[in-house]
Write a structure and sequence with these properties.
Elements: H1 3-31, E1 33-39, E2 45-47, H2 49-55, H3 66-71, H4 78-91, E3 95-102, E4 108-119, E5 125-134, H5 136-154, E6 158-163, E7 169-172, H6 174-180, H7 184-187, H8 192-195, H9 201-214, E8 217-224, E9 230-242, E10 245-254, H10 256-277, H11 287-304, E11 308-316, H12 318-325, H13 327-344, E12 350-355, E13 358-364, H14 369-384, E14 387-389, E15 392-394, E16 397-405, H15 412-428, E17 434-436, H16 441-461, E18 464-473, E19 479-490, E20 494-496, H17 498-508, H18 511-531, E21 538-542, H19 545-548, H20 553-564, E22 571-576, H21 577-582, H22 584-595, E23 600-606, H23 613-616, E24 623-626, H24 628-631, H25 638-653, E25 657-661, H26 666-674, E26 679-681, E27 689-690, H27 691-700
Parallel strand pairs: 16-17, 19-21, 21-22, 22-23, 23-24, 24-25, 25-26
Antiparallel strand pairs: 1-2, 1-5, 3-4, 4-5, 6-7, 6-10, 8-9, 9-10, 11-13, 11-16, 12-13, 14-15, 18-19, 18-26, 18-27, 19-20
Length: 704
């Protein structure tokens, strides 16, 4: 071979060798694997570049040797390394062991040592070759993996790995076994359907699709333990690779206590919402919820052109029951009234309690006026039935005002205002009825507001005067007494008749002050008549049960009589039948106390209420007063004649005196004489007269 070609061949071989050395050096660096050899005859060593680095030296800066190698082993690993070297030398077989090396800098690393004997042609050991690999990172990773594995295995949370297709369990941790009650071996034969009783293939498919979109998500489920008990669990689900196959890892946490707390908070929240929108006593919607429902009804009515009706209901006589028997009885009456209202309307209708004894009803989708009338009449009829509370038979009635959407109004405020106005119209029509709103009622409502204010001024300025209507012995035509009647002498309107202001005074409670003015004025006038030798007979005064229920009524009455020299035998107090029957037991006791003072008692307007004979005979009464509504049409109305005869007969059987009011002609008088009535009063004899006119009458002649 020519010299030039031989030279080129050597250079090429040299370049290839250098390239291999470079590659080998790079591989050692990447793997942190350093190679070394020891000549067993000369004890000289050769280290690769990475071996120097592994022991903490700059490459090729020291003379490597077996002694240097051994000096870097930690004291606890040195004996084992020496024993391994002897074993390699003796057996001639390669061996590997793990140890810890202290580098020249003092840093301690984990290392994996591999050694092997090389024999010469005579089969004598000539070299010891091997490698030193820095496995610190691998050992750290292994330790972290082991720690993580233990955390997962012994975590109190449940961990499951399931096959992505069959949903069978591939792995379960100890926490899962403890929570669910199955052993690991049992669970590894089961699928997710076995411990999730409410899980279905459709639900699983939905969850699987969610995972495709979100990669991971949180789901709530219910687990069933081996013993059959169940608990709520929250699952975090994520797709993973497990042992080379696709799977899902599921982290489950028992959230039963959380769910219980959530349910409790939800119940408390619902309760607070209910309390905020419902009446505590009747559980009906309160004013707030009513206004919201009414607003919704208006919106819906405008959108769909659907009419509805609003009923405003006030319970008649309720305040008397509440004042005389107390709030507990009153509350029971309201509860029963609410129940009756619910029985009268449909489920889709809204009943609300605005407060006190005021209720409203929104009647949705009513077709015609007759349907509304039928419901209103049913409410009126049902409210008339006796309410039995603590042994008391109590009677109330309902006054109902009705406004219509959209005929009367299209706003909530106007609908409420107009139904309220109509309700007052129902009261003025005698209560216990219903009235539809009419536009002229607006002026009527305004008049009531003005009247209320004017009444308060009238009391303060003493604008009331007392008139007296004679009561006559029907056989002798002589005055036996007179009834004191109030008149309002208004500074601009003049004399206002009682029918205009008495109902309003009764509703707002001013009647007590007015009755007190009448009583004191009339008693002073009677004392004067007797003082000057006149004989006015018995003074008859109306007594509202509200007055009688006042704590200081009797003491004030006695004090007034003493101050003005009025004798109790001159006084007769009239109570209405309806007031007495609201609470007959209490009325009997209080009226007995008054009667024991020498004061006579009479039932006014007898026959218009619902008296029970068993109570009537127990009342300390002296007189029954036949209401003028029965006398007015005698002798034309046979029913009135029959009723009047029956009242007279009843009174006589109970030893009561009978007085008829409203007698206007001789035919009425003769009928009363023929049937045994004792006394009468009315226009046949005299209209109510002021004190001056009555004084003149008493002076001139005490007989008609």
């Amino acid at each position: 071979m020519p010299i030039d070609l031989q030279k080129d061949s050597l250079q090429t071989a040299l370049r290839k060798l250098q390239a291999k050395e470079t590659t080998f050096s790079l591989l050692e660096k990447i793997s942190e694997l350093g190679s070394w050899e020891v000549d067993l005859k000369t004890n000289k060593s050769i280290w690769s570049k990475q071996s120097y680095i592994n022991y903490g030296y700059e490459p090729f800066t020291i003379e490597p040797s077996l002694q240097v190698f051994l000096s870097h082993l930690t004291p606890e690993d040195l004996p084992r390394a020496q024993a391994t070297l002897k074993k390699i030398m003796a057996s001639g077989q390669a061996d590997t062991f793990q140890c810890r090396i202290k580098k020249e800098s003092g840093e301690v690393i984990d290392a994996l040592l591999h050694g092997q004997v090389v024999y010469d042609e005579k089969n004598n050991p000539s070299k010891l070759i091997g490698t030193t690999q820095n496995i610190t990172s691998l050992m750290k990773l292994k330790q972290e993996t082991q720690e993580l594995s233990q955390l997962i295995e012994y975590s109190s949370n449940e961990l499951y790995i399931v096959d992505i297709n069959t949903f069978k369990y591939l792995y379960v941790n100890t926490g899962a076994c403890k929570a669910i009650g199955y052993s690991r071996d049992e669970l590894l034969t089961m699928s997710i359907y076995d411990i999730n009783p409410y899980l279905t293939p459709d639900i699983v498919l939905k969850l699987k699709n969610q995972l495709l979109d979100a990669k991971h998500f949180i789901n709530r489920t219910i687990h069933q333990r081996k013993n059959g008990t169940q608990y709520h669990a929250q699952a975090y689900i994520h797709p993973i690779q497990y042992k080379g196959a696709e799977a899902y890892v599921i982290f489950d946490t028992d959230i039963s206590q959380n769910v219980e707390n959530e349910n409790l908070l939800r119940a408390q929240s619902d309760q607070l919402k209910h309390l905020a929108h419902h009446d505590n006593l009747t559980s009906l919607p309160n004013r707030t919820l009513f206004k919201d429902r009414l607003s919704q009804a208006v919106i819906s009515g405008k959108r769909h052109d659907t009419p509805f009706a609003l009923l405003f209901i006030d319970l008649d006589q309720f305040k008397k029951i509440n004042d005389s028997l107390g709030h507990i009885v009153g509350d029971n009456v309201l509860i029963e009234a609410a129940r009756r209202l619910q029985n009268c309307v449909r489920e889709e209708d809204t009943i609300a309690r605005l407060g006190g004894d005021e209720f409203t009803v929104i009647l949705q989708g009513v077709k015609n006026i007759q349907d509304i009338s039928n419901i209103a009449q049913k409410i009126v009829d049902d409210m008339r039935e006796a309410i039995i509370v603590e042994g008391h038979h109590l009677y109330i009635s309902a006054s109902i005002g009705i406004s219509l959407f959209p005929q009367d109004a299209t706003s909530t405020d106007d609908l409420i205002k107009f139904s309220d106005t109509a309700m007052y119209k129902a009261k003025d029509e005698g209560r216990d009825n219903y009235q539809f709103y009419a536009k002229q009622m607006t002026a009527f409502a305004f008049e009531r507001v003005v009247m209320d204010t004017s009444l308060r001024i009238a009391i303060k300025e003493e604008q009331f005067v007392v008139y007296y209507q004679p009561q006559i012995n029907i056989k002798t035509d002589k005055i036996i007494g007179m009834e004191a009647l109030v008149r309002w002498l208004h500074p601009t309107l003049g004399l206002v008749p009682p029918g205009k202001f008495i109902p309003i005074a009764e509703e707002n409670g001013l009647i007590i002050e007015i009755d007190k003015i009448v009583r004191n004025t009339a008693m002073r006038q009677f004392a004067l008549w007797y003082k000057y030798g006149l004989n006015p007979g018995m003074l008859s005064i109306n007594l509202a049960m509200k007055q009688l229920n006042e704590k200081d009524f009797l003491s004030q009455l006695i004090t007034t009589m003493k101050e003005i020299g009025f004798q109790s035998k001159w006084l007769e107090l009239e109570v209405t039948e309806g007031q007495v029957m609201n609470n007959p037991e209490l009325s009997i006791e209080k009226l007995k106390t008054i009667n024991a003072m020498g004061v006579d008692l009479a039932i006014d307007d007898f026959g218009t209420g619902y008296s029970s004979l068993s109570y009537l005979k127990k009342l300390p009464l002296n007189k029954l007063k036949i209401d003028q509504s029965f006398v007015r049409d005698i002798p034309q109305d046979e029913d009135d004649m029959a009723i009047t005869k029956a009242i007279i007969a009843l009174g006589k059987s109970l030893n009561f005196k009978l007085i008829a009011e409203g007698v206007e002609d001789m035919e009425q008088k003769q009928f009363l004489i023929d049937n045994g009535c004792d006394y009468m009063q009315g226009y046949l004899y005299s209209r109510p007269l002021p004190a001056e006119a009555m004084t003149a009458l008493l002076k001139n002649n005490q007989a008609f």
